[in-house]
């Protein structure tokens, strides 16, 4: 077959060349269903945009960026989310190109290698504001932010309902008789952890229980890798910002002869595979990753078509009661005493 023209695509679908041009250029005036149909037919016929052929730009390749700190740890949450986003993209006849953004790339404002190949971007997790600003200014691509937002990018974000989720988890701990509850998470590390902390704070405040920032337990450094030490004085319950932190915490308590949930209760967040691998299984708030992936891809397609989206799509989850919480009976053991007994 020779060179495919827009007219050829229009003839095949029974639409005008103008309509084909608008659809492939991402301009308004074309319905979303027709736009997808035109893009599929263009790919099927082997059409290449003349002005972009030197850069081998694809009209249906989507770049997916994840900061290295979110995938270097054992936490499977982002890999699971990424898999679901890729599946949703494929269902919509788009294809994903994944790139892990190293810390040095963020600091040096290095553009992704696929920048000239893709028609849109999905940024998963937290990337620095200067990096994102440089990305938008120098690629001019639509960017959808998944599981993160800030004052610069909240207009195109999809997040889980961390605020209400942790509010629900903390209410459950309080209903089980716990009053001395410690939040575990580096509060300002990501927007999702911040939201979860404020949900924790609201629940505690509504029940007249004090919350001090210095009494919260940070669980990671600037690189995002989860690492922390047990406090000398234990609460009766820990409300962890994610399942990986809860898993590590339970293991650390067990190493010191402190039983979960008999001595201390622990909750997680996300409902990753690790929450069921742990002994005991971790009571957690299940994030709807399928719903987040669906909203992410749907909103990005709207952006690609020049259409508006919700400022922020917030996806609810649900509390899953498993085995790591017991009704509060007495004060927890002293971690220093348990260490002396070893």
Reported CATH architecture of the largest domain:
3-Layer(aba) Sandwich
Major sheet attributes: 6 strands, parallel
SSE pattern: HHHEHEHEHEEHEHEHEHEHEEH
Question: Poorly predicted ranges (pLDDT <50, ≥5 residues)?
Answer: 51-56, 336-342
| Count of spatially separate domains | 3
CA radius of gyration: 24 Å
Query: Which of globular, elongated, flat, extended, rod-shaped describes the shape?
Result: elongated
CATH topology of the largest domain: Rossmann fold
Estimated share of beta-strand residues: 5-15%
What does this entry look like structurally?
The protein is an alpha/beta fold. It has 3 domains: 6-55, 434 Repressor (Amino-terminal Domain), CATH 1.10.260; 61-160 and 289-317, Response regulator (Rossmann fold, 3-Layer(aba) Sandwich), CATH 3.40.50.2300; 162-287 and 321-341, 3-Layer(aba) Sandwich (Rossmann fold), CATH 3.40.50. The chain contains 12 helices and 11 strands. It has helices spanning 6-13, 17-25, 32-45, 77-91, 103-107, 129-139, 162-175, 191-206, 243-255, 274-277, 289-304, 335-341, and strands at residues 61-67, 95-101, 120-124, 143-146, 157-160, 181-184, 237-240, 265-267, 284-286, 312-315, 318-320. The protein has a 6-stranded parallel β-sheet with strand order 2-1-3-4-5-10. The chain has a 3-stranded parallel β-sheet with strand order 6-7-8, sandwiched between helices. Helix 4 links the parallel strand 1 (61-67) and strand 2. Helix 1 (6-13) packs across helix 3, helix 4 packs across helix 11 (289-304) and helix 7 runs parallel beside helix 8 (191-206).
């Amino acid at each position: 077959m020779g060179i495919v023209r827009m007219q050829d695509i229009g003839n095949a679908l029974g639409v005008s060349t103008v309509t084909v041009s608008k659809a492939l250029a991402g301009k308004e005036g074309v319905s979303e269903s027709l736009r997808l149909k035109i893009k599929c037919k263009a790919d099927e016929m082997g059409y290449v945009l003349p002005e972009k052929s030197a850069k081998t730009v694809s009209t249906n390749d989507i770049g997916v960026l994840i900061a290295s700190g979110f995938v270097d740890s054992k936490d499977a949450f982002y890999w699971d989310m990424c898999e679901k986003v890729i599946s949703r993209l494929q269902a919509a006849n788009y294809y994903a190109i994944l790139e892990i953004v190293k810390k040095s790339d963020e600091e040096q404002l290095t553009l992704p290698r696929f920048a000239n190949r893709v028609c849109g971007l999905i940024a998963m997790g937290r990337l620095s504001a200067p990096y994102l600003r440089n990305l938008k200014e120098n690629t001019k691509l639509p960017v959808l932010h998944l599981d993160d937002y800030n004052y610069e990018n909240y207009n195109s974000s999809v997040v889980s309902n961390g605020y209400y989720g942790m509010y629900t988890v903390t209410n459950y701990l309080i209903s089980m008789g716990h009053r001395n509850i410690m939040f575990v998470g580096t509060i300002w590390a990501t927007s999702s952890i911040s939201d979860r902390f404020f949900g924790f704070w609201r629940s505690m405040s509504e029940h007249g229980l004090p919350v001090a920032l210095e009494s919260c337990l940070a669980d990671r450094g600037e690189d995002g890798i989860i690492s922390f030490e047990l406090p000398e004085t234990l609460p009766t319950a820990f409300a962890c910002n994610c399942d990986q932190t809860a898993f590590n915490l339970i293991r650390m308590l067990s190493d010191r002869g402190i039983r979960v949930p008999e001595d201390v209760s622990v909750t997680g967040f996300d409902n990753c595979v690790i929450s069921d691998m742990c002994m005991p299984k971790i009571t957690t708030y299940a994030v709807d990753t399928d719903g987040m992936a669906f909203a992410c891809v749907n909103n990005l397609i709207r952006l690609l078509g020049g259409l508006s989206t919700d400022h922020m799509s917030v996806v609810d989850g649900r509390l899953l009661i498993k085995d790591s919480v017991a009704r509060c009976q007495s004060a927890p053991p002293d971690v220093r005493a348990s260490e002396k007994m070893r």
